[in-house]
Amino acid sequence: MNELWSDCIRSLEPYTPGEQPSIAGLIKLNTNENPYPPSPAVLSALQSMINADLRLYPDPEGCALKQAIAEMYGLRQANIFLGNGSDEVLAHAFHALLKHERPILFPDVTYGFYPVYCALYGIEFETIPLDDEFQVHIMDYIRPNGGIVLANPNAPTGIALSRSQLRILLEKCPTSVVVIDEAYVDFGAESAVSLVNDFPNLLVIQTVSKSRALAGLRAGFAIGNSDLIDALNIVKDCFNSYPLDRLALAGAEAAICDLSYFNATRQQVVNSREWLTMQLMDIGFSVLPSKANFLFVMHKLQPAQEIQHQLRQRNILVRHFPKPRVSNFLRISVGTAEQCEMLVHALREIIVSDTSEVTC
Ligand SMILES: Cc1ncc(COP(=O)(O)O)c(C=O)c1O
Questions:
Q1: Where's the Aminotransferase class I/classII large domain (predicted)?
Q2: How far is ligand 1, taken at its centre, from the CA of residue 86, in Å?
């Protein structure tokens, strides 16, 4: 261990992102990116920003992007916070709003970054087990706590809570900050944004990485009561006044404004998800009911890691989490219709050949 390191980081275990190999022809279904390109309006907005003004710092407030988000939701700029991807927004929310005397609560199976932020900022947490069907029961969270964090839809399960369930949770926990991570909400779940005016303790976090096909741009945002947003701004301005560069601000704004492209591409992803679900069930997979752009699946006979390995040999990447309760599952991002067909074709080969080996 390096004696030049600060003591506080010696025990940290960082989050491991899905791999991003640069291999030609790879079908990449391992990191929940959008299989479609960003809107053409985004590409032209980015091109128009490549000019001499790059010598200037960007707007530290990101007013134009905040205004576009505020208009989309009928809110005010004071209700919006911007960050370098929703991961950064989440990190600031943990830092600014979730360090209290009592432990915060989140599910035992959820986004792997939450315990990492807790370790980084010294926040106590308790995990609440999902039930046997991997569902969240909001009544389990109605107990003394230092805050509640729920991904909705949850990751990696893809299962979503309804807005009315979230309303009950907010009504029952008026003194807790409730963070709803809506990274995947646009693929068919109900957003909690419309509850923001009723609940000053609600912070909703969204991203342009998934439904707006801009994972490479790094822009995320939080929506909440202006008091919560003020706390996030204090942390941000103690950390980096310009988390979004000029290109990210312009590209994210163009993506938010191009509603028709957004609606068309997310519908294509939803259609492919439904098709893929039926196909995978036909091959013998159990598929959790997903409202996200990925499926969480387990095969009745073949071990998940073996299937992952065989897919990789055919240039198809999917994600496996070697963690309690989910180590026999694979998380498969929904690709284009063509990519989904290639995946199913490969899986039919793998499952048949493996089953015949078992029989012999
Ligand atoms: C549940 C969840 N929240 C947040 C994020 C972060 O997304 P980004 O930082 O790209 O906005 C991810 C990324 O995969 C995610 O799965």
A1: 26-347
A2: 6
